[in-house]
Amino acid sequence: VRLPIVFPNGDVVQAGINVRKYVREMLANLSKKFEIIVFTASHSCYADVILDYLDPDKCLISHRFYR
User: Fold this and answer.
1) Could you count the other beta carbons within 10 Å of the beta carbon of residue 55?
2) What's the rounded Cα separation, in Å, for the pair 28 and 59?
3) Over the stretch 14-59, which tens digit does the pLDDT of each residue have?
4) How far apart are CA 34 and CA 5, in angstroms?
């Protein structure tokens, strides 16, 4: 999957990511019983694009923490 990442300085790059098969189904099943919290060492401008792709309705991932 290629996603456009907009950096704070205005630069835009197309980032390629590999999405594991059934990741959305796994997140949906886990979110029924657990609060899903993502901690990443990346910047929010990059991570938010990916997390929004995985959870477009913002109902699976409860919290996001960045660098």
Assistant:
1) 19
2) 9
3) 999 999 999 999 999 999 999 999 999 999 999 999 999 999 999 9
4) 29
* Token pair for 63: 């919290």
| Tokens matching residue 2 | 């290629």
User: Residue 65 contacts by C-beta under 8 Å, 6 or more apart in sequence?
Assistant: 37, 38, 39, 40
Contact 28, 57 (CB under 8 A): no
- DSSP state for residue 10 in the 8-state scheme: S
Encoded tokens for 20 = 């594991």
Q: In whole angstroms, how far apart are CA 25 and each of 4, 19, 37?
A: 24, 12, 16
In this structure, which amino acid lies at residue 31? Answer: S
Q: Which residues pair with 12 in a beta bridge?
A: 6
